[in-house]
Write a structure and sequence with these properties.
This protein has a seven-stranded mixed sheet with strand order 1-2-6-5-3-4-7, sandwiched between helices. A five-stranded mixed sheet has the order 9-8-10-11-12, with helices on both faces. It is globular, with a radius of gyration of 23 Å. By secondary structure, it is an alpha/beta fold. The protein starts with a helix and ends with a helix.
């Protein structure tokens, strides 16, 4: 018996008593949904572990291949210490469902999306990552054959199977696991080719990259150097103990300091799975997704590649961005928070560009999903082609409204999911909205990726923002987090 078979045998014994049909188990699951806005995510060792991953893999196989015809599923992972364990369990479930598995190993989430869409044999993909979350967390993201995330209906089917609500059909075919790390080169070429085809390169530019000890380290430095940029890298070794810790897209201080100290043209910070990016200019100022969308939108519009001058963003987009884009004759469509909703609105309206303030940007001309490395390359190329500094482009764009986001940790799943039933919080939200009128807005929501209630207030003045953010966050702490 091989080492892999020994591990899988122990996993099966642990989750499935003798005589239990495959695909059914007695995992203790929460009453709330397993799938959030970005797949299944949580602290490893709580609900999320090898038993759940095996069952999720098996039922994902059934959903992706409902007629039992077979096919290939692409699997990738970030650098978290738990990612290999989850990959083995997912592969066991998928091969038990009769599917082939191509294991890309450490790679960005958009690499999985690209390869899934690029190969005719691929009927789906899986990425193991918790994105910007801390090292103890992890997650499972499923993709369809077109490289986009599975629909809520398909996710509900997977969850129903995991919960023992579907019948397991017999099978006499088993899939095979293949290591296919070499395919990441195809993804890297897809990033650089469109820029090279336009006759552009990044020679003469100095760029600092904060790779967050994560998946970007496998791709981003190479593609920037291939296009001629002088590249300085921070946190560039995959490290499961330090992924996202005080670095990357959630902590820009070190990147800003390095850009200033090295007199670089600009810098980019990725999250753990490199599906999002934020930038800093030569002065060390943060350039978020709103500014990225605005500048890229202008470039695409000027090239007649932005249908109806429309950009899709979320309810988090700054009012300053929206009003500046409208002043140029453009339209900003807002969706719920989550790249799934942005992508759905883009497909429905035919929009070519969309994204989130957090730096998750989708450009349908170049990719099927949010891609931090792709976005960074195109923004660097935009700066190069304009012949101006990024800081000057930002100064000539728009002024943001003061905005503050307060995250309140709420561990109780039921309280977090049902926060809207808190009457005192609802009264306070109504009061804030009435007080600010068209001078500002309030957004309270439960995070779909972390155990947090997010309170965001945006207004014309800092005093309004701080007053209502403090007021609402205090109520959340007292009524929901206690």
């Amino acid at each position: 018996m091989s080492a892999r078979e020994t591990v899988l045998d122990r996993q099966l014994t642990a989750i499935r008593p003798a005589g239990t049909p495959f695909g059914q188990c007695a995992i203790a699951l929460p009453e709330t949904k397993l799938f959030g806005t970005d797949g299944i995510r949580g602290r490893v060792g709580d609900v999320l572990g090898a038993p759940l991953a095996l069952q999720a893999g098996f039922w994902a196989g059934r959903v992706l291949d409902p007629n039992g015809q077979g096919g290939t599923v692409v699997i990738g992972r970030d650098s978290r210490n738990s990612s290999s364990m989850l990959a083995m369990a997912l592969s066991a479930g998928l091969t038990a469902a009769g599917l082939e598995v191509w294991d890309i190993g450490l790679c960005p989430t958009p690499c999985v999306a690209y390869l899934t869409s690029a190969f005719a044999d691929a009927i789906g993909g899986v990425m193991i990552s918790a994105s910007h979350n801390p090292p103890p967390d992890n997650g499972i993201k499923f993709f369809g054959a077109d490289g986009t995330k599975l629909s809520p209906t398909a996710q509900a089917q997977i969850e129903a199977g995991v919960r023992g609500q579907l019948d397991t059909r017999a099978t006499d075919r088993w899939g095979v696991h293949h290591d296919r790390q070499e395919l990441a080169v195809n993804y890297a070429q897809s990033l650089t080719q469109p820029i090279a085809d336009r006759g552009l390169d990044l020679s003469g530019m100095t760029v600092v990259l904060d790779l967050a000890w994560g998946a970007a380290s496998q791709v981003a430095p190479h593609v920037f150097r291939d296009l001629g940029a002088t590249t300085i890298c921070l946190h560039d070794t995959p490290d499961g103990d330090r992924i996202n810790v005080n670095c990357g897209s959630t902590h820009l201080d070190l990147l800003a300091e390095a850009v200033r100290d090295r007199k670089a043209d600009l810098g980019f910070a990725f999250d753990g799975d490199a599906d999002r990016v934020l930038a800093v200019d030569c002065r060390g100022r943060e350039i978020d997704g709103d500014y990225i969308l605005y500048l890229w939108g202008q470039q695409l519009r000027d090239a007649d590649r932005l249908p109806d001058s429309t950009i899709v963003s979320t309810v988090m987009a700054n009012l300053g961005f929206e009003r500046a884009w409208q002043a140029q004759g453009g339209t900003l469509l807002r969706t719920s928070v989550g790249d799934r909703y942005v992508h759905a609105a883009m497909v429905e309206t035919g929009a070519a560009l969309g994204g989130e303030q957090s730096g998750h940007v989708i450009c349908r001309h170049y990719g099927v999903s949010g891609d931090g490395t792709m976005t960074a390359l195109h923004i660097a190329a935009l700066v190069r082609s304009r012949g101006e500094r990024l800081s000057d482009l930002i100064d000539g764009s728009f002024q943001t409204y003061p905005q503050r986001l307060e995250n309140v940790r709420v561990e109780d799943r039921d309280r977090r999911a049902n926060w809207q039933s808190c009457e005192s919080l609802q009264r306070a939200i109504d009061c804030a909205a009435a007080d600010m009128g068209d001078r500002g807005r309030v957004l309270v929501r439960a995070s779909g990726t972390e155990p947090l209630i997010r309170v965001m207030v945006e207004a014309e003045t800092d005093s309004l923002v701080n007053h209502w953010t403090d007021n609402l966050a205090t109520i959340v702490r007292e009524q929901l987090a206690g």
